[in-house]
Amino acid sequence: QKTKEKENKRLAHLRDYFFAKMSKRHFDIMVNGDLKNRLPNNVNISIPGFDATFLALELDARGIAVATRSACIRDQGGSYVVSALGKDAARSSASLRFSFGLGTTQSDLDRAIRVLINITRKG
């Protein structure tokens, strides 16, 4: 139980770090969901003007894995979770979900942020 609590605290710190760093460096980022009332290992963002599938493929080509929607959904639409939060279709289709785990480090997040910013600046 103590190990789980310690890991949840570490992951929540990484999640908050990711949000803060992305917000400073990428002004168009939109956080999907509440900043505090969420799982400690989950970051879900939308970047207006970019298709999530395009971003996911570009990130994957650079060794960074993200999801665009729930793995159990087969349709080609955007994230049903983002839609359920009352967000429009454009925001839903621009949704990226980053999940963190035991091996995730702050330097991993720094690299993911740098790569994502480079991709979106090139368009």
What structural keywords apply?
globular; three-stranded antiparallel beta sheet; mainly alpha; 3 strands; 123 residues
Describe this structure in words.
The protein has 123 residues and is mainly alpha-helical. Helices cover 50% and strands 10% of the residues. The chain has five helices and three strands. Strands 1-2-3 form a three-stranded antiparallel beta sheet. The protein starts with a helix and ends with a helix. Residues 78-88 have low confidence and may be disordered.
Shape: globular
Q: Compute the CA-based radius of gyration.
A: 14 Å
The low-pLDDT segments are 78-88
Report the biggest beta sheet as strand number plus sense, adding barrel if it closes. Answer: 3 strands, antiparallel
What is the spatial order of strands in the main beta sheet? 1-2-3
Q: What's the pLDDT, averaged over the residues?
A: 82
Count of separate DSSP helical elements: 5
- Tell me the distance between the termini: 45 Å
How do the helices and strands follow one another from N- to C-terminus? HEEHHHEH
Q: What's this entry about, in short?
A:
The protein has helices at 2-25, 52-61, 80-84, 89-93, 106-122, and strands at residues 30-31, 42-46, 95-99.
